[in-house]
Amino acid sequence: MKFSNVLIRIGLVLAIAVSLVLSYFIWTNDQRFDNTSSNTSSVKVEEQNFESLNNIALPTDVIVSDENGESFQIHDQTKNIPVEIFKELKKHDLSRITRSVTTKSKYLKMLKNDDYLQLAYPDKLTIDSFAKIYQVSSSNLKSDKEFNRLFIPLNDSKYIYLGSDENETMYRFKDSDWSSTKTKKLIKAPTHSMAVSLEKVGTHYTPFYLDSNKINIYSYLTSQQQESYFVSKLLGTSEIESKVTDDNATYTSGLYKRIVVDRVNDLVTYTNYADTTIPKKATSLFSRSFDYLMKSGLQVNNLRYFAMGSDYLSYRNYVEGLPVFLENDNVPALRVNFFNSGVNINFSNINLQIPIPADSQTVTLPKTSDVVANLLARGIKRESIQRIELGFTMSEDSSVDNLVNLKPTYYFEIYNEWKTYSEWETTELASFQNNVTGEE
User: Fold this and answer.
1) Overall number of domains in the chain
2) What is the pLDDT of residue 24?
3) What does DSSP say about strands 322-326 and 385-396: parallel, antiparallel, or unpaired?
4) Domain that holds residue 370
5) 208 - beta bridge partners?
6) What is the reported pTM?
7) Of the residues 157, 184, 211, which one is the last residue of a structural domain?
């Protein structure tokens, strides 16, 4: 990086840092709340939590097809397509969800249907969770029915479909007032478009990029919360015992609650031994994990739902439509595990704040089929590949403090563990067992 560019970036960081400090004093000044009643504050908190849930539960992949059956993953830096679609949905009175008669062949045709815009989640979501978040009646269906893809009409159809990739099943709800005009305008001329084919990987139809693509490297100014902030949020403020070293800190409240801080890697682990109930339904798992997320006090602006298992749920930061993985350990931004012995929450204390110009650097990634072929040649079985994600590796920028670079690469979940493509190329495979259930 040129020295002049480094100076420019340092100047930008300093200016932004001053702005953040001033904002902090403004927002933490108690006088702002002198005329606000506690009841009004509670209502605002509930509204903010509901809005956060709306954003966290948004789909992350946007797929369109043309009249030739060719598909494209699109992204627009000027507008958030999933956000705008769901804003429109919430304006309408949506009738109850019903099952649609579907065969595998019909489902595969739907994946290439140019009359529908596809919005896909990174993992399954229950219809009941969707119905509660977006106020759709689903009383005629069992709450544990799952889906991971929406089909939004681009024609005169009044039906919106929910698709389950795992078993090629579709559900639908009717919106008599739906107009495709706004949707067509929304997806016209996106800033990014990559040709893809949707291939079955594990339980999901995954975008396979048909060409090599240049993906931008991004830089972000970051911040960390003080340990006392999480202690106050999760343990309270009275009778807290602590044990602190240079690399680690442990805080306990009574016999049942504990926080362990890994100061080297900015990772926090919270354990509540008193909460020993494992959710029996996915809807409850989603709801309770979200409650713990909000209780943690983490910033949720960039967070999206990422994965769900029988006893866990995880979230990741998303930038420009792609998930962010921490360097070396690849842990999610937050993961909630429910055990018979208690609840365990692991999360990162690195908050992405403000994007910084990154000298227009790019990385050229090969087409997905070539990458998969190389891993199969190493001896990895195709059925052992559980998920594939195009994502960012977050690493510290050595030139400026509190600055990280987001470098794009392929991530693979194999044998329940997430690694970059290059890591799987050099990993000793004999150390892994062929167990392909779970996230990581």
Assistant:
1) 2
2) 39
3) parallel
4) 355-431
5) 197
6) 0.87
7) 211
